[in-house]
Design brief:
Helix 5 links the parallel strand 6 and strand 7. The protein has a seven-stranded parallel β-sheet with strand order 4-3-2-1-5-6-7, sandwiched between helices. It is globular, with a radius of gyration of 16 Å. The mean pLDDT is 93. By secondary structure, it is an alpha/beta fold. The protein starts with a strand and ends in a 15-residue tail after the last helix. It is 39% helix and 17% strand. 41% of the residues are buried. Helix 1 runs parallel beside helix 2. It has one domain: Rossmann fold, CATH 3.40.50.
Length: 193
């Protein structure tokens, strides 16, 4: 695993643990020689993860849409910064540049990026592991919804393994690094519905 995309908030949230874990993620990736790929901003958890990786001597690649370059305040000290024309181009480039994808706490944008990455894995568009850092139980509700979707028949139980979940940075990176995405069909035959 040479590069990991980190999806996370453009704000820091209300609990200090979110900032602490974003900083730990950036530092740990750099220490392991893994390139950080992320949304290119200098603010929020996005800026914190990038700053931590850079401070630890890591390589950091940002991808930001031109429309958000000023709003999210594009980071000025990255190894590489790609300015793209749309959110769609951003999301596609983030996945293309990465060997794995991990979400930290964040809002709609983070959820959108994570859900698209997992969906693309489900559809076989990519075979990259997707991880979720469930910092301080932040994603407990999302995980409960996932289990509910399985119970209600909208997500197949075997697709639960598309998402690696941990609440510890080191364990999450270890598991993502060794995780093999299950090659299971999204669609099932009539007898299985």
């Amino acid at each position: 695993m040479k590069s990991v995309c980190i999806y996370c908030g453009s704000s820091v949230g209300t609990r200090p643990i979110y900032l602490e874990l974003a900083t730990a993620m950036g530092h740990t990736l750099a220490q392991r020689g893994i390139t950080l790929v992320y949304g290119g901003a200098a603010v929020g958890l996005m800026g914190a993860v990038a700053d931590a990786a850079l401070a630890a001597g890591g390589r950091v690649i940002g991808v930001i849409p031109r429309s958000l370059e000023e709003k999210e305040i594009a980071h000025g000290n990255l190894s590489e910064l790609h300015i793209v024309e749309s959110m769609h181009a951003r999301k596609a480039m983030l996945i293309d540049l990465s060997d794995a994808l991990i979400a930290l706490p964040g809002g709609f944008g983070t959820w959108d990026e994570l859900c698209e990455a997992v969906t693309w894995g489900q559809l076989g568009v990519h075979t990259k592991p997707c991880g979720l850092l469930n910092a301080a139980g932040y994603y407990d509700g999302l995980l409960a919804q996932l289990d509910h979707a399985i119970t209600e028949g909208f997500v197949h139980a075997h697709h639960r393994d598309l998402l690696v979940v941990e609440n510890d940075v080191e364990r999450l990176i270890d598991r993502v690094e060794t995780h093999r995405v299950p090659q299971l069909p999204k669609w099932v035959g009539p007898a299985e519905t």
